[in-house]
Amino acid sequence: LFSDEKYFDLDGIYNRQNGRIWAVDRDEADANGGIKQKQKFQAKVMVWLGACSKGITPVVIFENGTMNQQRYIDKVLPVAKKYGDKQFGDDWIYQQDGAKPYTDKLSMEWCYDNIPAIIDKQRWPPNSPELNPLDYSVWTEFVQQINWNVVRSKQTLIEELKRSVKKIRTETVLKSWKSWTNRLHRLKRINGNYFH
């Protein structure tokens, strides 16, 4: 079960670390969506989601503030555990990145006490959008399902996120899983560099 979180705001979703465009020059990048206009001081929410070969977890939305260790333990980990147990019984592995709330001592203790197996930060590349299906597939699908014309406030954004996550196409999630092993082998061949 892979997990990730993103900020959504009234302009959509954008993450400088994962939002990459391959282009010959700046003009080509801009033509392919390289320019992102952002409103100043707008409301945003953090969204956590998990994905696996069986589908996606329920969405967890943090309306205010950011993720910290206690919110992660109280709100996210129980959702991941319930979903993983329902889909796979006691035969599943949880992947999380190296963000501080996830690698905190109490968070890791909770995981080791409650989840069958975990890929910790020592065994996972720190910048791995090429390996996390959420980064290379599911977030894009999620954003495409959102009707941005109805998003006018923080509340309408939250309502639209809850509605749109249910519209993520199963075939998109399954396709990303079918390509995961091949992506892993390709990354190994190129020593963990980004795909070109």
TrEMBL record:
Gene3D superfamilies: Ribonuclease H-like superfamily/Ribonuclease H (3.30.420.10)
GO molecular function: nucleic acid binding
Provenance organism: Didymodactylos carnosus
InterPro entries for the chain: RNaseH_sf
Name of the featured protein: Transposase
